[in-house]
Amino acid sequence: MAGELTFTPVIGIEIHIRLKTATKIFCGCSTNTDAAPNTNICPVCMGLPGSLPRLNIAVVQKGMLAGMALHCTPRQKSLFYRKSYFYPDLPKGHQITQSDLPIMAEGYIEVHDSEGKLKKIRVNHLHVEEDVGSLRHSAADGRLEGAATSFVDYNRSGMPLAEIVSEPDMASAQEAVEYAMTLQRRVRYAGASEADLDRGMMRFDANVSLKCSDGRWGNRVEVKNMNSFHALEKAIEYEIKRQKKILLQNGEVLRETRHWNDARGVTTASRAKEFYRKFIVEPDLPPLMIPQEWIDKVAAQMPEMPDEKAARYVKDWNIPPEVADVLTDDRALAEYFEACVAAGAAPVRAANWVRTEVLRILNERQITIGDFPIRPEVLAELVKRVDERRLSTTQGKEVFDHMVEKNCALDEAVKALGITEGGIGGDALAGTVQAILQANPDVVEEIKSGKDTKGKKMKFLQGLVMKETKGQARPQEVAEALAKALG
Ligand code: ADP
Ligand code: ZN
Ligand code: MG
Fold first, then answer.
1. Distance between CA 327 and CA 314 in Å, rounded?
2. Are 56 and 98 in contact (CB under 8 A)?
3. Ligand 1: does its nearest atom lie under 6 Å from the Cβ of 102?
4. Ligand nearest to the CA of 156
5. Is 211 close to ligand 1, i.e. is its CB under 6 Å away?
6. Ligand 1 atom with least separation from CA of 217
7. How confident is the model at residue 429 (pLDDT cuts 50, 70, 90)?
8. How far is the CA of 146 from the centre of ligand 3 (A)?
């Protein structure tokens, strides 16, 4: 046998995100997800005969923002199609989606390859579509077969989705996860989607095939049903291993759809064949025409993206790149930091406070920056006082913790902790030194008679002064004040 066979994974991903709008895509029903089952429904999203869809313009706007965040280009003309199939979660028998001429064309997302170099993953397109209802089965594992009863909740039916389809440009599970995480961060920045995995607002399908060094290229397998980054990573890794084994035995990888079983950590062939594949143009919706002025208006709403923000922090404020990445991971956190700087805090110092102290509290309390109790102007004031040495770094952190704990004002915290700003020096320190000397005449005598050769007694007095001032005097100044008082 000539050399060992090597395999290169070829991976493409389809991601669904829920677009952030108040109402559904083709009717006025609320998109609130906390509602009781089957309360946010109407004839349109139920697909009752005779009902007509009307496109929600906010969905178009959010879809465009999501696409622009992925460097896609808006199309002035796009079309809606019917994807017909029968399933209890789809009462009208077809899903309205886009096929040819989707709203946003060709973009890209940058990820790091195995050598740490930046690589562009092409986005084929983004299209908007409606979600379907959700099924709940009474079997504990959610199986349809064997369940005594199945329930359908149509609240989700007609929820606005964007589907983002990548080109098969990824070569590892790690690249796929970074692609998905970057996509999430960017659509969140754009305000297009909350993309919250735990709330089903972001879902992944991965297409995986293997290229073999002997020239063979296995069929691609579509893996469905991943709803966490961890599941996406594990499912791709599992599929790579499974396909490799087949190809090593000269077998054929079947072109099929498989389901990720998160509990068992395996993919399984899904028996359900896909019957739909038949798209017809939606006769109840005209082509979507977007005038250039409207495109320009939406483009103007695009906020600064995380990588642009990070680059600006580095360039304008000398913030280390890795710190800039942490600060810009979440838009609200980045805005908090920027508000601190706008309120007068030195950028590098403010960055350190936010990165260490603020993030520590967010982690400890499992809260987001929106629920953080210290306002950015107040943190800026604290940072300034530490910078001006009115507070020592240790005192600053005590004040910070106290404010978080008690949810109180800065001056209140300083007072409650018994801190004298600027430390104790000058006359106050001289007075304390005098009092300590008077209370310890024997020690003073020993020092004056030259017996304190090792300076131990002197250290002892310094300690007493520090204790008396509750650590608020600077050691250097205490030593000087003592030396002066002792002549
Ligand atoms: P379909 O018609 O099955 O939806 P698409 O062309 O829309 O096929 O591609 C679906 C997904 O499959 C895309 O994300 C694409 O990148 C990916 N894909 C296409 N070819 C391959 C391949 N050979 N290996 C892995 N993924 C692929
Ligand atoms: Zn409705
Ligand atoms: Mg497709």
1. 11
2. no
3. no
4. 2
5. no
6. 23
7. confident
8. 31
Smallest Cα–Cα separation from 85: which of 97, 74, 76, 73?
97
Residue 100 CA to ligand 1 center (angstroms) comes to: 15
Tell me the CA–centroid distance for residue 288 and ligand 2, in Å: 20
All structural domains of the chain, each given as residue ranges with its CATH number in brackets, are: 7-295 (no CATH), 304-416 (no CATH), 426-485 (1.10.10.410)
| CA of 471 relative to ligand 3 center, distance in Å | 68
Looking up tokens 């990548």, which residue turns up?
A: 166
Q: Which residues of 359-369 are buried (b: 16+ CB within 10 A; e: fewer)?
A: bebbeeeeeeb
Report residue 240's pLDDT band, with 50, 70 and 90 as the boundaries: very high
SS3 letters for 124-154? EEEEEEECCCEEEECCCCCCCCCCCCEEEEH
Ligand nearest to the CA of 236: 1
Ligand 1 neighbourhood includes 314 CB (under 6 angstroms):
no
What are 285's two structure tokens? 């919706």
Q: Which of 58, 57, 60, 56 is nearest to 68 (CA)?
A: 60
* Mean pLDDT over each residue of the chain, to the nearest integer: 91
Residue 13 Cβ inside 6 Å of ligand 1? The answer reads yes
Instruction: Give the predicted TM-score (pTM) of the model.
Output: 0.84
- Cβ–ligand 1 distance for 89 under 6 Å, the answer no
User: What six digits make up the tokens of 433?
Assistant: 């030194």
CA gap 157, 234 in Å, rounded? 30
Q: Which residue's structure tokens are 């017996």?
A: 451
- DSSP one-letter code for 356: I
How far apart (Å, rounded) are the C-alpha atoms in residues 388 and 384? 6
Q: Are 93 and 86 in contact (CB under 8 A)?
A: yes
Alpha carbon nearest to ligand 1 atom 15, residue: 12
